[in-house]
Input
Amino acid sequence: MTSDHDTGTIERLDSGITELAGYRDPDRNGWTREVFSAPYRESRQWTAARMRDAGLDVSTDPAGNIIGRLEGASPNAPALVTGSHTDTVDGGGRFDGIVGVVGAIEAARQLRESGTRLSRDLLVVDFLGEESNVFGLSCLGSRAAARELTPADLDRKDYRGVSLGQAYTDFGLDPDALTQVQWARKPLHAFLELHIEQGPTLEQRQLPLGIVTAITGIERFIATFSGSADHAGTTAMTDRQDAMIAAAEAVLAVRREGCGAPTHGVATTTRVESESRSPNVVPSLVRMMSEVRSVDTSWLGGVKGRLTGEILAKAGEYGVDVNFDWSTDNEVVHASPGVQDVVASAADTLGIPWMPIPSGATHDAVHMATLAPMGMIFLPSRAGKSHCPEEWSDTSDIATGVTALVHALQALDTADLTRVTATP
Output
């Protein structure tokens, strides 16, 4: 494989990522461009202009997704779709999602400028609001495209008491029309998303490309520990019903669960809050928020029972009661074997080394998988850092990913995905 890339490609990728990074909240850490924010609104004009400069016909659908269309020879044939998102988490970086949009625009440009005309339309999509937000719901644009955005979701409220539906209205979108996404109502041929790995595996193995096998399932829960409020100076240690101690034991139980996964699994406690703010009162009410992720369906399916039993038993030793509120963020979603094979074959033809790899993060691809055969291409993340200002992927690696994306899209254009078998 050669590491040489066209100078124009490198310059456009560099400028695209740098210019998009300029749309950020100056009062927040890192590169913060959250959905519905002023910087996000401004950045979308840049994205649409970038698509037009690449020769794409640009529109915005009722869900707020920006669509760049490269017309194929048979516009009525099921379209190919690629893209990602350009919003960030609070204090985020410059590459997560952005690479998949800037890279997809570059891929479409290369196809057009080379005179390559696909047999079907290619749709480059910047999905609205992929990152989790103040409403606690991720993948807004792709969720709406897949008709998985519900009226109950629109009733979700943020810390100010503003509903998600109102946020859409304030952003200029009609909450009653969000799922009327016409391009997603037609048959689609395949969806392929370019993305940074957000983990260290590719860098550690010195590989430029990963072909995603599955996207993690995510189980989340809030545990509420109820003990007894007592004086912290006069209540003997053996006489306490300390909700914080029970919560601390639960934090360690969550960690043990992740460490004990037989293949791929992680478990994280993200917040522990005590109702009391007094420094001299034994905590009586504590809430803990945790999540468990894995692409191992059988292991993930047993998490709820295992953790609930262990946490209840340990809390009982301290005389503390526990209530659980479990929720499934998304099920395990497997990439299409056919799309995996086509991407692998394209990488082999190009001489690009690759490895099969699971995704520990969720993506718009999860929801697009309900509409079309789905695949993802990963490229290396320096030190595996993501969702932070230190997030970084080398432009040469991004260019390699774009090259793989271009050739994979060409191959997918004519592939019969119903006849392709999984790569061993």
Q: What stands out?
A: The two ends are 23 Å apart (CA to CA). The chain has a mean pLDDT of 95.
